[in-house]
Design a protein that fits this description.
The complex is a heterodimer of chains A (392) and B (522).
Chain A: H1 3-13, H2 15-34, H3 42-67, H4 75-91, H5 96-121, H6 125-143, E1 150-151, H7 155-162, H8 178-204, H9 212-234, H10 241-259, H11 261-271, H12 273-278, H13 283-309, E2 311-312, H14 320-330, H15 342-361, H16 366-390
Chain B: H1 10-15, E1 18-29, E2 32-43, E3 47-51, H2 58-66, E4 75-80, E5 83-85, H3 90-96, E6 98-101, H4 113-117, E7 124-125, E8 129-130, H5 132-145, H6 161-174, E9 179-183, H7 191-206, E10 210-214, H8 218-224, E11 227-232, E12 235-241, H9 249-257, E13 276-287, E14 292-303, E15 307-312, H10 318-325, E16 333-340, E17 343-345, H11 350-355, E18 358-361, H12 365-369, H13 376-381, H14 397-410, H15 427-439, E19 445-449, H16 457-472, E20 476-480, H17 484-490, E21 493-498, E22 501-507, H18 513-520
Parallel strand pairs in B: 3-10, 3-11, 6-9, 9-10, 15-20, 15-21, 18-19, 19-20
Antiparallel strand pairs in B: 1-2, 1-4, 4-5, 7-8, 11-12, 13-14, 13-16, 16-17, 21-22
Helix pairs in contact in B: 5-6
Chain lengths: 392, 522
């Protein structure tokens, strides 16, 4: 078969998996033209990634919640509330290094509380988390009642949302962030190594693999993508701590969901709870773990946002849960349960935030922005359902 | 390949006017040819049975006929009432009078009988308001036609499966149906309900309605069908006239599998067993949802290396018994004593039962046995994932593939790859995956709940052979089955269950169909 034929075949067979990447690429290209390159400038890209962080971590947790056929509406205000608590604690002199783990732990507690009526009594999570939504919304107003916005002065804490990783003391290439570039190169190397490894193992088992030319194309394409993103980021201040944190979270969750017993059990519960139960899986325990992790990530989200603004505000958390849910659905999660990837949801979050940022740069009115985002969400889900159906 | 209909004599074809003819139907799915030049002819007013092993293409053919696969999705012609039909969907086929009743009933459990009968076909006054009085009146009349004596205001969920089926038929008849297709109508019914249903079909025949019945119960087919069409591997094998005992079950099996099967129950040496591996004493279970005792004072034991049959009618409490032993996932309140290998057992979750060496292959493989959206290997390893994971809980994907392939070969799961989604497999292969999953937990007592329900003769034989192999290795099997020949053919001992009680224990030498039925209905 010719190269073009191969390409066509691979694209057609994997349209669902690559669809989101293609959509993201199209969106970025579109804004690059309409904003005369400002959109893909190093500065804007860095901002875009940093702004996506607090929604991205929520989207990761929400993916698992939706995979087990549930929903958590409380995460937005829980995040806002935990951010406010962190600000209050630091204002009264508790160091950030103590505050952060406590806030994450409180997040776990919050998630588990949402899950208790769900796991023990079978109350729909829509209802319990809606109750949480209202309660945490009130709680934010309560803790910020005295002062309104709470200013955060702790430099360590504020660096999480605004700081960048340090560079080498010696400048070899002027104008770029060298550590970022090195990390980018390392990432490309790691990617190629793991792909080669995977291919070798699959061949050893006589599984079908991509044809040689397609495999090379994939390697080149992804390497260029990683390289381009690194180059753009290195052109500004390099990798921000936010991006580092998000990458670590994604890496951990991706590993757990794809490689571990726990991950398998989560997808089994989502795929068929009765069968999972009869297979000896403790379904309640899975509920607590997934909602607990969602709560912890809400805490992290609150920290990222408060740190970025260097303050806790009364409106923090408003409709974040919906943004996270939208990102997960755009990223290919299925409400029927058992289907959805953490990495997909991150792409989904990037798609939604790119739309935001690009339309802001184009000075499009906020009213039109909402409409466009709604259309994109609907379009993405329709595309997903249709490709899934034809793939059967 | 048979494009013609060889066994049908000329005279028959001429005397009976076909109401329906499907000519050279070919339907392909990506990578699979499900139907290849199938020809299918049904005479007006007859009961025509469609037989074949699972995966032979029966359901696909009926989906083509009912418009689930629209015109253009297949090649060939559907001729109904003398005209070529091009159905775009189910509503088109219903329009001309073809109705299909699936194994999984399409009724809304929370709605009443009359609401269900007129669902999608409401009687309206003024063009938009539902006329409930007229609806109830006409629903009562429809129920009379199927001889179902229930209050039309009863909710569907409060009816048994047999009655639900009749409601479904009433619904179809109400739409002025000419050809009624029944897909495995008696699979979930007990003997009485089955008989009822067959009688109803005879009544319908008298009223000029044509019935197509898909069934694995060949005895029924022989009893009721006027003619039989047999499919194998997506092709028509033959059409036989079946009036008045012209075909036997044996003939049908021969055509279905394409080979002779002398004895469907493989022989084994029955040796006396004495080591008790499972003992249950004074076992009671109260179901808080139903508000009554589902199991009453049961006593029994299972010995090493034997197959113990649990016979009884549908709903006698056998599945409830199995689940109550297997970690009680439904939350019954249990009293009594269970000993596993002489150790007192008190399981509060299936995981405890699995750890103690029990395994339960569910009767409902789609509902709570398998995870249909996942692939074969993931289903097989699910109940024992730690076996192939390190201490950190990281699953070894290569080991998983290896194990899945071992089971694929050893119990003959027919699939191109263990990465195939389970939903794409036929019933028999799904059942094998289900069994493989539980064998991987290395159980000492294997509970098989209706192990061969809805699967074809060839796969049945394979599963029986496997059972014999397992007990030869020292496993013990509890076989819950509603098919008496299976109970008699496979068991070493039989317990009969009726209304939550054990009403008798029979050594296999003394067990006969009559004995068991007597105890099952006592």
């Amino acid at each position: 078969m010719s190269f073009a034929q191969n390409l066509q075949k691979v694209l057609r067979e994997n349209i669902r998996e690559y669809g989101m990447f293609i959509a993201l690429f199209v969106i970025i290209t579109f804004f690059a033209f309409t904003t005369k390159g400002i959109f893909i400038s190093s500065r804007n890209m860095a901002n875009l990634f940093n702004q996506t962080g607090y929604i991205a971590v929520l989207a990761v947790g929400m993916t698992l919640v939706i995979v087990i056929r549930h929903i958590d509406l409380s995460v937005g205000f829980l995040a806002g509330f935990l951010g406010a608590l962190a600000a209050l604690a630091m204002k009264s002199g508790v160091p950030a290094i103590v505050v952060i783990p406590i806030v994450l732990a409180l997040g776990v507690v919050g998630g588990v509380i949402t899950a208790i009526p769900v796991a023990e009594l079978g109350v729909p999570s829509f209802v319990t988390s809606l109750a949480g939504f209202m309660i945490y919304r009130g709680a934010i107003l309560l803790v910020t009642m005295g002062t309104g916005t709470i200013i955060i002065t702790d430099p360590f804490f504020n660096a999480i949302g605004n700081g960048y990783i340090p560079d080498l003391p010696i400048k070899i290439i002027p104008g770029v962030h060298q550590v970022t570039l090195l990390l980018g190169l390392a990432a490309i190397g790691l990617f190629i190594w793991s792909e080669l490894n995977d291919r070798k193992q699959k061949q050893a088992y006589n599984f079908e693999v991509l044809t040689q030319d397609m495999f090379v194309l994939k390697l080149v394409f992804v390497s260029i993508l990683i390289g381009a993103v690194t180059w753009v980021l290195a052109g500004y201040n390099g990798l921000s701590w936010t991006v580092v944190i998000v990458l670590i979270v994604v890496a951990i969750y991706h590993f757990i969901t794809t490689q571990t017993v726990l991950g398998r059990h989560i997808y089994a519960v989502g795929g068929n709870p009765e069968a999972a139960q009869l297979s000896g899986i403790n379904v309640k325990r899975i509920f607590y773990i997934v909602f607990g992790s969602m709560g912890m990530l809400s805490g992290l989200s609150g920290i990222l946002f408060a740190s970025r603004l260097k303050s806790a505000t009364t409106t923090a958390g408003t409709s974040w849960e919906l943004d996270a849910i939208a990102a997960a659905y755009v990223g290919g999660v299925s409400a029927a349960g058992g289907v959805g990837k953490v990495t997909g949801s991150i792409i989904g979050a990037l798609v939604m935030m790119s739309l935001n940022s690009g339309m802001n740069l184009m000075s499009i009115d906020i009213s039109a922005q909402y409409i466009v985002r709604g259309v994109v969400l609907a379009g993405a889900v329709i595309f997903d359902v249709m490709t899934r159906r034809s793939g059967k | 390949m048979n494009t013609s209909v060889p066994n049908m004599t000329k005279s028959e074809a001429e005397t009976s006017t076909p109401i329906l003819e499907m000519r050279n139907i070919t339907k392909t799915f990506p990578g699979v040819k499900a139907l290849s030049n199938v020809t299918f002819q049904v005479a007006k007013g007859e009961i025509h049975s469609l037989c074949g092993e699972n995966g032979a293409g029966k359901s696909t053919l009926m989906k083509v006929l009912s418009g689930v696969y629209p015109f253009g999705d297949y090649s060939g012609d559907i001729v109904f009432n003398g005209a070529v039909q091009k159905f775009k969907g189910i509503s088109d086929s219903e329009e001309v009078g073809i109705a299909i009743i699936y194994q999984e009933l399409a009724l809304v459990p929370e709605m009443t009988v009359y609401e269900n009968i007129f669902l999608g076909n409401e009687i309206k006054t003024n063009g938009f308001m539902v006329d409930w009085n007229e609806t109830i009146k006409r629903a009562s009349a429809a129920l009379k036609k199927v001889k179902l004596d229930v209050n039309p205001a009863t909710k569907i969920k409060d009816l048994g499966v047999g009655k639900q089926q009749l409601v479904e038929i009433a619904k179809a008849l109400n739409k002025n149906v000419k050809v009624l297709i029944l897909d495995e109508p008696t699979a979930a019914l007990n003997e009485d309900d089955s008989k009822n249903l067959l009688n109803l079909m005879r009544d319908l025949r008298k009223n000029g309605i044509t019935c197509i019945i898909i069934s694995h119960k060949l005895k029924e087919v022989v009893e009721i069908a006027d003619s039989v069409t047999i499919l194998r591997d997506g092709q028509t094998v033959c059409t036989l006239s079946a009036k008045k005992g012209e075909v036997s079950e044996h003939d049908l099996i021969k055509h279905m599998v394409g080979r002779e099967i002398d004895n469907i129950y493989p022989k084994r040496d029955r040796k006396g067993a004495d080591e008790v591996v499972l003992e249950v004493r004074n076992w009671n279970a109260y179901d808080p949802n139903l508000g009554r005792n589902v199991l009453k004072n049961m006593n029994f034991n299972i010995k090493k290396g034997e197959i113990v049959g649990f016979a009884g009618l549908m709903g006698a409490g056998r599945t409830e018994l199995a689940k109550s032993l297997f970690g009680n996932p439904d939350g019954y309140k249990i009293t009594g004593e269970m000993l596993v290998k002489k150790q007192k057992a008190n399981f509060t979750h299936p995981q405890h039962a699995i750890a103690a060496g029990l395994a339960y292959v569910s009767e409902d493989r789609k509902g709570n046995g398998l995870i249909l959206i996942q692939d074969i290997k993931q289903n097989i390893t699910l109940a024992n994932l730690w076996e192939i994971a390190n201490q950190m809980g990281v699953v070894n994907g290569n080991a998983e593939v290896k194990i899945a392939n071992e089971y694929r070969t050893s119990i003959n799961i027919k699939t191109p790859s263990v990465e195939q989604r389970v939903s794409n497999l036929s019933g028999g292969n799904q059942q094998k995956v289900s069994i493989a999953k539980w064998l991987f937990t290395k159980p000492s007592v294997l509970i098989l709940d209706e192990p061969t329900r809805g699967i074809d003769v060839g796969a049945k034989f394979e599963i029986y052979t496997l059972m014999n192999k397992l007990i030869a290795q020292g496993m013990s099997i509890i076989m819950i089955s509603s098919e008496l020949p299976e109970v008699l053919g496979m068991s070493d001992r039989v317990y009969v269950v009726s209304e939550g009680r054990i009403t008798g224990e029979l050594p296999i030498e003394k067990a006969t169909q009559e004995n068991i039925m007597k105890l099952a209905t006592s």
